[in-house]
Amino acid sequence: MRLRLPSPSRRQLIVGAVVVVLVAGLVGWAVVPKPKSFRAIDQLITVRTGPDDSAEVTLDTTLYLPKSASAADPVPAVLLAHGFGGTKQSVRGDAERFADLGYAVLAWSAQGFGRSTGEIHVDSPDWEVKDAQRLIDWLAARPDIRKDGTDPRVAAVGGSYGGALSLLLAAQDTRVDAIVSMITWNDLVNVFLPGGVFKKQWAGQFFGASENPDDPQCGRFAKDVCHAYLDLATTGRATPATEALLRKSSPSQVLDKIKAPTLLVQGQIDTLFPLSEGDANARGIAANGTPVRVAWYTGGHDSGTGPQSEADRLRQLTGQWLDHYLKGNGKAPGTSFTYSRVAGLNAQGRGLVTAASSVEDYPGLDGAGTTVDLLGPARQIANPPDGNPAPISSLPIAGLSSLLGVGGLAQEIPGQHADFVSEPLGAALDTVGAPRVRIRAASPTGEATLFVKLYDVPAKGAPSIPDGLIAPVHLTGLPKDIADAVPVSVTLPAVVHRFEAGSRVRVTVATADSGYWAPPEPVVYSVAVDGAITLPAIAGTPIASPDAIWRYVLAALVAAIAIGLAVVLLIARRRARRIDRSVTAEHVDTPLVVRGLRKEYKNFVAVSKVDFTVRRGQVVGLLGPNGAGKTTSLRVLMGLTRPTSGEIFVFGHRLLPGSPVLSRVGALVEGPGFLPHLTGAQNLELYWRATGRPAADAHFEEAYDIAGLGTAVHRRVRTYSHGMEQRLAIAQAMLGLPELLVLDEPTDGLDPPQIAEMRKVLRRYATGGRAVLVSSHLLAEVEQTCTDVVVMHKGEVVAAGPVEDIVGDSPSVQLDVSDVDAAEKVLQELTGVRAVAWSGGRGLVVDIDGTPRAEVVAALVRAGVGIDRVAPRRRLEDAFLSLVGGDTKASGERS
Q: Which long-range contacts (C-beta less than 8 Å, at least 24 apart) are formed by 169-173?
């Protein structure tokens, strides 16, 4: 709906010009790209690597060098490593940003990736780490790189695969002056065998990232890495040799050797490298007195970079760290800890809004918190053969779990899980850290593989696993009877999550999960929770978003726009006062009156003459073949386009685009339109918020009932079928229970049971003084739903009135008789009866061809046939076809 303002005067044009100049100046200053301050130099560098430098590989590199860099003015360097499966191109954006800040940035494709030769050894100190050392040697030989003596001033920066490389490199080469390591691992044994259970999906995702036609089984992986994976995937257990290989590529073995100040960034939505991996790195490095700063953010391997505000915050932290420890600028960043949580939805529907907080020192994962009692008896649960079927708690593809909302859609398998649930929370409860719970288990085999999950069960909506994180545990030495079981403490993955007031906390113990290996033998376990769960918390201080400076920079822009708009709107308001706001007394209590409506376009007439009325309590069907002008009439009615001539009154108010009286009308015209990344409920709430009316007036519960989506109303709209979107759109039209409801093809996309339910909804809605106008091509539905119809043809109304009047006298009758066979014999002998057809049960449809109904009834009675009902049989479809002359195709007009 658009408000058409009057044509601007000269004064308005001057004001508008001032606003445009201000906008153009400030926005141009903000967004016009600066010329590049660096040049990119591609080069293949051959290095000696491997044990005893026994091998030679070629690394594909790019050096991003500031144009100001020279022997007279050398600059510090950044070694920028990419993630697993990527190449030097994957980090190009970050490399260019660092180069703009005055750093020489060397990015390269690791062994086995891109154009680099060699094999994938998974950050082996003998291979990939040694490659990075040779690149430091190469930087040290350049005169334009800043040095301390002969050592280059260099930082190791990387994420995931590159993050672990940065830590391992700093432990092996003391020339590294600073580290920024993001979303990476501490111990690969813990990563791929958490709780002793093999994380098969993520391991398979890693292993499938390499392809080599010469070795289809191992791809570009080194043979020892390949065989270790194949053994793990086959048995679900790691041999001592496999554990040794994984630990060789783990920072956990060398943290005591890291002396370079380290910024650790870990993702909160990460089922591959959860927060516990970053926590172990932080504690291990800080134990030797090395400065360490920890930052958590609402992203990770399951959610990408997270919201833009998070990316900006992390860039700010990285910039401060490198500026101080490489350039020597500014005071030491300190060792404070920052974290964030999703605080809500952007008011403009542009993704999520996050709120960041900080504390003076990193507290770890197991801080003090709140104990919540869990209720529920011991239960028996079945382990299926080979863990199949299994619920899906996450998907091992970067960003896909977040995109699909898998943690919010997790469905447990009946008989394979036990739930232990708290009472509703009396107040909101923030959790920051790793929840702890004690469980008891019994097994006839003496061991059990279990999956412990934390659920948020809101008062309204579907239960969800925060960030899709679960705790697998493999228990041994178990008794056969649960009464003899000893409590075992289970630490669940750390989360940053708010349980809202009224929500319940649920701990689920399950026997399988699609992401993990499971025992092949079927067995039944007994499980119980020992009393309560501890939810840790941190008293953080809110911190400003890094984009806060823009709020001040753009304040002048906002003020200028506000002043300009205020002037324009003031003039428009004064002009609007001259608009006819009178009320026509005779129509004040009539929802809709249409008089002489005509709508012309350049080359044709869409609507030539339309007159009809919709009164309280009526459900009026607007019928007509394609091109009759139905949709055009509805668009004019909703103020979406202006009529060429004619009048429309809504409760006595003459209708114009933007008329206030439209607040009393709800509509669905030309199909639904929703934000796909929001849930159905969120879409309805944002829509209502945009109206500026109080939430209490929306009647959301009634709208949810009308939608009939159940818990699906809390799913993202991108997962909806067309029929589900249609039902949500109808619910949106009914928000606020408007007095006049206008629906264009409301049953489009609905299945027969849903159509039948919609029929009841529309009838019920028209009670209590409300009215409904519905356009439809389903004549049988209109006949069963509507009290009145308006039939349009070639832009005109050809008939209007109650359905029974439009149908009129019928040449056929419906007879319900006591004996169908006897009745058929009697009727077939009557003169003038042309056809008899059985309509199911005890019903007959008889074409009496003008024979009086009384004669037909008398003949049946004389033959001893009982008659329960006699009714006209003519359908609305028959009347419709007679009115439009069988013309059901478009006639050149456009509706």
A: 169/79, 169/129, 169/132, 169/133, 170/258, 170/259, 170/260, 170/262, 171/251, 171/254, 171/255, 171/257, 171/258, 172/125, 172/129, 172/130, 172/133, 172/254, 172/257, 173/132, 173/133, 173/136
